[in-house]
């Protein structure tokens, strides 16, 4: 078997893309999207109909251009999600507007609106969709309440142990630690060209979280994300899920050689790892003390928000040309 097929025997592989053709080619279990990926996909001619349908839907709402833009964005995300679900047997992760990252009630309301849009297409969000929310304190609280209502969440932009612990305590379905973005920060901060995979800071962060969850019996799924190279992926073989961009999926599919398991729930259960707790004050202090996590969380929210604005601008331009 090639390395991709071997990896699939121990880890659920998820496609990190909005490109349906790439998803179909590599046959992942699930797929994830975000505003950056949707912005790229929305510019592709083959997906123009999905964009135009979302624009037409947004125009049915009054309340001014902002209200129409909000519904256009949500419908566009659901249109892409629905098409992806025709290809993958599992779930699709749909991002909630990053501009709501510090708004618990706003996040809940937006998720509920997305649920209704999926239901209108005959899709059951409880079994087929995860809603992506930034791992801020407010986002985690929103996810906790949504999970109680049967609306399952993927907590994204996760860079630190306090974020991971708070997510597990909140009972969220899945977290997405960003391996490559952690590596980026340390390379820049320490002026290094890179790290061997076994001491890669992003890899070590995910391994710590995985082992902690398994040692203490948390059911929250750990899905490593945002990879920069194959070595990072292979060093996390055995992690619950890994979401991988098409270019790296292609490299895995074209590579031969053994893929040994690196992470094991059974091994983690025997580790000496203390149980910890983060209330709001401890969470905010722990995040503050981690310069990398503080900076990358803020940067990630800004970038996703900026791409959402670019996507809104693109849909307005398309609407004017129709």
Tell me what you see in this structure.
- The chain is α/β, with parallel strands linked by helices.
- It has a single domain (3-321), classed as Alpha-Beta Barrel (TIM Barrel).
- The protein is 56% helix and 11% strand.
- It has helices spanning 3-8, 20-26, 35-42, 48-58, 65-84, 104-120, 125-128, 137-148, 161-170, 179-190, 201-215, 230-235, 246-253, 265-268, 280-289, 291-321, and strands spanning 12-16, 30-32, 92-95, 129-134, 153-158, 174-177, 221-224, 241-244.
- The protein has an 8-stranded parallel β-barrel with strand order 1-2-3-4-5-6-7-8, surrounded by 7 helices.
- The mean pLDDT is 96.
Features:
single chain; 322 residues; alpha/beta; TIM Barrel
CATH superfamily membership: Aldolase class I
CATH fold name: TIM Barrel
Helix content, binned percent = 55-70%
Q: Which structural class do the helices and strands define?
A: alpha/beta
Instruction: Give the topology string: H per helix, E per strand.
Output: HEHEHHHEHHEHEHEHHEHEHHHH
Overall domain count: 1
Low-confidence stretches: none
**Fraction of residues in β-strands:** 5-15%
Rounded to the nearest angstrom, the radius of gyration is 19 Å
Total of DSSP H or I helical runs spanning 4+ residues: 16
- The CATH architecture classification is Alpha-Beta Barrel
Mean pLDDT: 96
Q: Count all strands and give the number.
A: 8
Give the distance, in angstroms, between the N- and C-terminal Cα atoms. 48 Å
Identify the strand order in the major beta sheet. 1-2-3-4-5-6-7-8
Mind describing the biggest β-sheet? 8 strands, parallel, barrel
- Gross morphology: globular
CATH class: Alpha Beta
